[in-house]
Structures are given as C-alpha cells and as structure tokens.
Amino acid sequence: MTPLAHQRLDTFLEQLGSKTPTPGGGAVAGTTGATAAALANMVVAYSLGKKNLAEHQPALEQARAALTNFTRLFLRLADEDAAAYALVSELQKLPEADERRKRDLPAAAAAALDVPLAALAAACDLLRLVESLADKSNRFLRSDLAIAGVLAEAAARGAWWNVSVNLPSVPDQSVRSRIEHDGLAMLDDAAQRRARVEAACR
Question: What is the DSSP code (8-state) at residue 20?
C-alpha cells in the first residue's frame, strides 16, 4: 500500500470506505493524531514572531519542531498499523496446522498490539504539548488549539480500541491486566488534558 504521506486525501478516504481490511480504524487513529499535530502547528506558526508572545518564542520554536515530528510519527504508525493488521489477517486465514501460521502469527499479533500502544502513548504526549500551548499561543486561534486537543484525545481513544481488540492475543493474564490498567489510566489523563485545553481556550 502507498504510504499515507504520499496519498491524496480523496484516495485514502475512498480506500477507507471500501470493503477491504486496510486502511481501517488504526489508520484513522493515526491520521487523526497527525491532523491534531498539524493543526496545533498552525497555531504555533501564527504565534511565532508575535511581540506580545516574545517571552514564549523559545518554547514555541521547540513546539514547532516537536509537532512536525508528531505529524510524521502518527503517519508512520498509521502505515505500520495497517501492515500489522494485514499480516495478522493473512496468517489467520491459514489452517491452524500451517507451519507459517504457527511460526509467524505470535510475532504478528504482538506487532498488531504494539503499534496502537505506541499511538496511544504518542497521543497522550501530544496532548501534553497542546495543553502547554494554551497560555503561550495566539488567542485568535484558540478554537484551532481546542480542536487540536479534541482530535488528539480522539486519536488516543481510537488507538485504545485497537489495543483492546488485540488484548486477547496476549497469553499472559498478568500482562493483559497491566496493559489494560495502564491504557485506561492514559485515557483518563488524555480526557482531563483535553478538558483543560478546551477550558483554557474558551
């Protein structure tokens, strides 16, 4: 599949709406995170060089670099999620006694879990950065910053759905419980940060 960064938006949406396993929810979570980061970056772009924000310019410069990296990271994770899911889907269609299935499915299932876990963590990190911009950025773009926060939380929640649907593939109950506990804690943190971003932007 063509990397998302090289696709037209209409092409991606057409593929997303078709009867194919990928792109799917993982790609949507990733592109939502990338969109959130890009939108926050626009807020930063309109904040750099502002005299009334002079004291925040170093922090804004750092934020610009970080948000650019977040956009690239989320697009890469979206591609990795699609690839991981496609491999799991392919292997699960093989007979249970098939040697390739027995050899490769555990690692493929682990990847299908690890990628959305990384996306969840990245979305939470993005929300921390978006929250930090609330008192350092151009107030004329507060609605854009609020939307970036909403989208970042949506990316976190979307990533968690892809984690939870793959949790049954983890054989160790204690590991499953730890992942679930940590994931739900991150979701709660994301919700609180999104609420604070919206409150600060009102």
Answer: S
3-class secondary structure, 50: coil
H-helix or E-strand containing 128?
A: helix 99-132
The label of the residue with tokens 């929300």 reads 127
Q: Is 138 left (phi over 0), alpha (psi -120 to 50) or beta?
A: beta
Q: Are 126 and 162 in contact (CB under 8 A)?
A: no
Residue 32 φ/ψ region, left for φ over 0, alpha for ψ in the -120 to 50 degree band, beta for the rest:
alpha
DSSP 18: S
Dump pLDDT digits (tens) for 152-175. 999 999 999 999 999 998 889 999
Taking the whole predicted model, whether its pTM rises above 0.85 is answered as yes
For the chain, the distance separating the N- and C-terminal CA atoms, rounded to the nearest angstrom, is 41
Q: Are 56 and 138 in contact (CB under 8 A)?
A: no
